[in-house]
Amino acid sequence: MDSCTVIFSNMGDTDTLVLKHIWEGLPNVKVVEVNNHNGPWAKKVNSAILAEKDTLILCGHGYPSGLLSPQMHGEQFLVSERNVRYIKAKRVIGIWCYASSFAKSVNLNGFFSSMFISNPIEAHINGCTRSDAATITREEILFGQRLNQLIASDTPMSEWKDKLIDQADMNIDIVRFNYKGLTYLK
């Protein structure tokens, strides 16, 4: 990996804080963290996206229309159809709820999560009633660590979903739900 830029929408909750395991320890990582205290962010995010030619990681909370901003004022999304055209990176990784729906809608290639359960409320809404908060957080950390290893080893993204599923305990309801929703778009 030549370089890596992370656009990290940090809502300050456990759901997003554990995402740091995705890039922790990777070489040449530039993290653009947006939280509810460090605005305005638009120029900083857009220039970081535009500058990254190798690996771009987009993560936090989101919707099919983009990666949410944690800030209540200004633009609602850090990444949306408004600025997706700035993405030039060879490898794009989007980890937020419905990132794959967003990527499909804007013809963005890469590796993306679908609805991704990161707390008990989301688990209940999606019919996963056997996992408690501790299990959900533990499994989200494991997912981040496994994804980190795939990024670090330059494993082709087309192999990621199968490799992640092979390492996961698919008997856990939220793991099965989250991993089956992973998508590689080329």
Strand and helix layout:
Layout: E1 4-9, H1 14-17, E2 29-34, H2 42-51, E3 55-59, E4 62-63, E5 66-68, E6 77-79, E7 91-95, H3 99-105, E8 110-112, H4 120-125, H5 133-152, H6 160-167, H7 173-180, E9 183-185
Parallel strand pairs: 1-2, 1-3, 3-7, 7-8
Antiparallel strand pairs: 4-5, 5-6, 8-9
General description of the model:
Helix content is 34%, strand content 19%. The protein has a 6-stranded mixed sheet, with helices on one face. A 3-stranded antiparallel sheet has the order 4-5-6. The chain is built from 7 helices and 9 strands, in the order E-H-E-H-E-E-E-E-E-H-E-H-H-H-H-E. The longest helix has 20 residues. The chain starts with a strand and ends with a strand. The protein is an alpha/beta fold.
Placed side by side, the strands forming the largest sheet appear as 2-1-3-7-8-9
Number of helices: 7
Distance between the termini: 19 Å
What structural class do you assign from the helix and strand content?
A: alpha/beta
Query: Which term fits the overall shape?
Result: globular
Largest β-sheet summary? 6 strands, mixed
The Cα radius of gyration reads 15 Å
